[in-house]
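Subject: design request, 220 residues
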């Protein structure tokens, strides 16, 4: 699957997207992440892509021409979808991640400053928000979408079953059970008193039927 991120800061996610699972997924060619800088289509000497909003008000907006030209330049795959990040857009969730994971290509426009010229909406499929708060740009939302979608692609996780049995997988209301690892008993001090936290015994029993039952009854 191809992710295309349109941003005026094409290196801002370099470190994050090139570590761990996403690094491996790119190396195995399961995903490709391309960055497209609208500045390539800036026409003035300063290569500016922003301008003041009509009607006044604070801040600057990313202009429509460089965004439009960037979108046009991206070679479209058969199953392709264009989203614009917007704090007031459709809320991104696991269901949406599952829907996006069936695509060949997801094109994402990251806004900056006060946002983008609203006329770009004619050339997108939907506006997406990653939550009810305002960030300074759409790059972190793009990283969130890339990671949530990539995890659902076959071969990306070490064990594909990990994504099947995860919180929100399948039915929205599914919450995974808690997990424990060694040591079996964790000792710590609280107000000078020795305290212990033990792992539930059943998880150490080797009885898979009982473990399954315990997990079904112990959601987080
Ligand atoms: N003036 C805009 C408003 O009041 O809605 C906020 C613009 S924000 C500072 C700049 C850009 O960051 C937005 O255009 C959008 O692309 C991105 N952004 C900020 N918060 C976001 C969120 N919660 N989800 C998705 N994108 C977000």
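Subject: RE: design request

Done. Sequence follows.
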């Amino acid at each position: 699957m191809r992710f295309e991120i349109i941003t005026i800061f094409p290196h801002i996610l370099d470190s994050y997207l090139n570590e761990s699972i996403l690094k491996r997924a790119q190396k195995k060619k399961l995903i490709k992440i391309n960055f497209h800088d609208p500045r390539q289509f800036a026409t003035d000497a300063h290569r500016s892509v922003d301008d003041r909003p009509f009607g006044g008000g604070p801040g600057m907006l990313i202009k429509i021409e460089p965004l439009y030209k960037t979108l046009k330049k991206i070679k479209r795959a058969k199953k392709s979808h264009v989203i614009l990040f917007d704090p007031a857009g459709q809320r991104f969730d696991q269901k949406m991640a599952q829907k996006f994971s069936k695509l060949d290509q997801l094109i994402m426009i990251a806004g900056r400053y006060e946002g983008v010229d609203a006329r770009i909406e004619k050339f997108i499929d939907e506006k997406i928000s990653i939550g009810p708060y305002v960030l300074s740009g759409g790059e972190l939302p793009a990283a969130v979408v890339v990671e949530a979608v990539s995890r659902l692609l076959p071969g990306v996780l070490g064990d594909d079953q990990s994504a099947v049995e995860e919180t929100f997988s399948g039915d929205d209301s599914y919450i995974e059970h808690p997990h424990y690892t060694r040591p079996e008993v964790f000792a710590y001090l609280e107000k000078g008193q020795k305290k212990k936290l033990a792992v539930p015994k059943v998880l150490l029993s080797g009885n898979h039927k009982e473990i399954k039952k315990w997990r079904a009854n112990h959601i987080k």
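The mean pLDDT is 96.
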